[in-house]
Amino acid sequence: MKAVAFDYARPATMMAASRLLAEHPGAKVLAGGQTLGPMLNLRLVQPTLLIDITRIADLARVAETGDAVILGSCVTHAAIEDGYVPDPAAGILARVAHGIASRAVRTRGTIGGSIAHADPVADWLSCLIALSADVLISGVDGRREMPLRRFVSGAMTTSLQANEIVAAIRIPKLRRGVRVGYAKICRKTGEFAEAIGVAVHDPERYELRLVAGTGKSAPIVINDVASLWTKHSSAADRPLDREQLRRCLLAAGHGSDIYNLKVCVGALERAAVEALR
Amino acid sequence: VATNKPPILPYRGVARTGVCFALEVTLDALARELEIEPCDLRLRSLVRPQQMPFDNITQRHFDSGNYPQALRRAMEMIKLDAVRARQRQGETDNRRIGVGFAMYCEQAGHGTSVYAAWGIPFVPGHEQCQARFTPDGGLELRIGAHSHGQGLETTLSQVAHSILGLPHARIKLVHGDTALTPYSTGTWGSRCMIMSGGAVAAACDALADRLRRIGAKLLQVQPEQVRLDIGYVHGPNGRVAVEEIARTWYRRPQDLPPDVDPGGLEVTAGYKGRDSGTFSYAAHAAVVAVELDTGEVDIIDYVVVEDGGVLVNPMIVDGQIYGGTAQGIGTALYEEMPYDAQAQPLGSTLSDYLLPGPTEVPNIRVSHMETPSPYTRFGQKGLGEGGAIAPPAAIANAINDALKDLGVELLVLPITPRRIVEALAEAKKARFGAAKEAAQ
Hints:
The complex is a heterodimer. Chain A contains 10 helices and 14 strands. Chain A is of the alpha+beta class.
């Protein structure tokens, strides 16, 4: 199948892009096109206009402040994988990027596109939520920002308004000594995830943050970590109470399918093992 | 019946994968029930080399081979005893390891009477090759079968080289073009090395004779006094290059012998082997690790001991085995075409229909045996499909071996993580149920 006929615009500024988006209710924003391209060809989307944002200089920008790294939304997975952007989180971003699809996809695919699409099987959301990243959003009415965790409200659902574009992601730098664990379980190299587990462990503050990418819903953040510790938590490969972990996932809205639950618990456990090591 | 589900179509090892799976998985189930080593059961059941050629109960005529030796070598290479010892010791992580074997035979190049007896309209007869020298002394081989990755350009050139002694750079293969090549039923049934190879040899034999006769005239000796070797016709007192002979036929016919074959340096010859064909075979062995919580399967070792008769080109045979085995791993663990309740196919793109990639295919260790076929020109056997036949059975046997203490037996392909996790959960439920019953 081929895409429906659509118009194409390549604005040079954010304001122009937002205006086009506001004026054309049937428009879609094109960044790397690695998801949108196949969706167009399968006619899962049938836009009247594609707004190509890859020539907007601001969106390719990378900035570093004292406590955060800000990645423009058109920064590619490959640029992150190759270490061309500052590393806020102990190399975890490069690792996540490396696990995305194939190198060809990573060369074009963008971090902003992935976040705006909010596919629950895709790679970035769980990791960036675990790192407490914020989304910087730009629209005709100006700019706003919000925590990524609140930005993603469900599978492929975000709080992005019709005329808004994801401009950048701000990722706080990890405190010294904080450890990150990451595990993606997928059927084969580069496949979409069956489940993703992310663990961020701050040994000084006795904090452990767990985020699960379930493949079905928005990532699940597990708040009640205290309940997960077992008497045997010193056991290197089983630091957490699995049954409790399963209950936490179910309470947070995870489906009851036994396989999905098992891989999700498995991914979280691997991430925790790495972060607590 | 109206259906939009596709029927079975040409595929590598078509139908044989299923037959091998049924046989070999049953053997392992039987061995588990009898509590004996599955390989011992196989060794007891295999046809012995001294029984060859062997007619089985379905009237298949097995040409040659040493099946027990192939299996024993696979057992050694996979280090069966070491795997069993490791299993007794147990793993330090949440995995179980298992070892599985599978053997198959691959009938190839079987011919006219076999297909005619099946009553199908598709009956292969003689396979032909048209071979001709060009005026500059190059050799052109034309065959009706097609080379689409099998490397016939190389292997058939080797056949011609072995007879005519020409350098490979002077040999060109024209294949599978109905406008240019002899009629053929094509490339299928692992037949090309036997059938096209036989036809190329027959055509080159005829050309060799004509080269000798013209060469003898140019050397002013009798045809019986010359021999053809490495691109020259050699006489008692000198030699003449094949290029020179070709030039004579095309450009200086006045120098030809008066009784020259008017067919010149162009021959069409055919080949037909014994209709029962050849049987190549192999023993595949796999060691897998199964993650009990997530159902992930890691193939940690894979061994193939294959007997393809006389190997024309061992590197190409290795390639066929690697490619076939990768394909079989796809059948075993990844590839599936499910349908929803409305019969919509759910595996219609490669993001839904998973194929193994380079990282899913282990380092396959191959060992060759070369028992010549008594029925083919060079003792060669057909072997292009075999790699794909055994992996589903070998891998399923390995997974079932890993999980046997947990009461799990997986018999549906592909063996996906979901199927493993669900089967383990079922088995656990059954164990609890049995324990409860016993307690009451």
